[in-house]
Amino acid sequence: MVKWSRFNIASIVLGFGFLYLPIVLLVIFSFNESKLVTVWTGFSTKWYGQLWQNQGLMDAAWVTIRVALLSATCATVLGTLAALALVRYTQFRGRLLFSGMVYAPLVMPEVITGLSLLLLFVAIGFDRGFWTITLAHITFTMCFVAVVVQSRLLSFDQSIEEAAQDLGATPVRTFMEVTLPVISPAVFSGWVLAFTLSLDDLVIASFTSGPGATTLPMKIYSQVRLGVTPEINAICTILIGIVAFGVVIASFVTRRREAQRVRDEQAAFAPA
Questions:
Q1: Cβ(63)–Cβ(214) under 8 Å?
Q2: Higher confidence at residue 272 or residue 56?
Q3: Which of 126, 132, 173, 192 could form a cystine bridge with 250, CB 3.0-4.6 A?
Q4: d(Cα 113, Cα 110) in Å, to the nearest integer?
Q5: Which of 102, 117, 94, 251 lies closest to 186, judged by CA?
């Protein structure tokens, strides 16, 4: 049995407090009746009501959600295909270059990524707006999906696919009916991660945005420089709730799928 020392307990408390105490305070003061965000005068939800009347924040939130949904979906498809290529096709010309290009956004500073994409869009004459932000988010979130899916494919039993193909299934049908259901928890986790990263992004969106395509992080940052308002606390609390809900659902789905897979394997190898 592991014994916890006072130093370990104090380190954990200080670490989690440093990470989560500011978030807890933000959520609490989003229900503050006062317009002063640092002075508590009573409980109220009026700022959530006024938030819906703030057309600027609502437009930015709608743009952010659309970009996140579209970019996360495309990044999930591309990242899954990239992971399949890296795991299943280990010998092909240019594999090292391909893997380097897939993983480059993981280590590339966001400023460099945003600036390079900006120069690309300007060079090809692509007007910046909703689609440039979406393409930029697909570019830097795809690698995260590839890493998550690749880790699941490395532990995947390929004999199941071989058995399906021996029974006459085509490669596409084998992937859709055998491989994809098994790796679906990883695919869904990658989608949630890509969606969260897109919601959170400020730097890359700042470089690739244009008129009429202001994301919510950009809007919040521009308003915070002039002073924090209770409406900012309210919208941030909603974002925290959305991300937390997504993480809980992803964890639940992953755990349920893994438990089902274990039960299926036990049933398959159980004596008749």
A1: yes
A2: 56
A3: 192
A4: 5
A5: 251
CB atoms within 10 A of CB 162: 12
- pLDDT 10s digits, 84-117: 888 887 777 877 888 888 888 888 888 888 999 9
Q: Amino acid identity, residue 107?
A: V
pLDDT at 268: 58
Q: What's the pLDDT tens digit per position in 54-89?
A: 888 888 888 999 999 999 999 999 999 999 888 887
Q: From residue 82, how far is each of 93, 150, 178, 213 by CA, in Å? A: 15, 9, 18, 29
Query: Which phi and psi (to 5°) does residue 43 adopt?
Result: -85, 135
Token pair of 31, please?
A: 């229900």
* Integer Rg of the chain from CA: 23
Q: State phi, psi for 138 to the nearest 5 degrees.
A: -60, -40
Cβ atoms 138, 67 nearer than 8 A: no
pTM of the full structure: 0.81
- The verdict on domain 55-269 having CATH code 1.10.3720.10 is yes
Residues forming beta bridges with residue 43, ordered by sequence position: 32
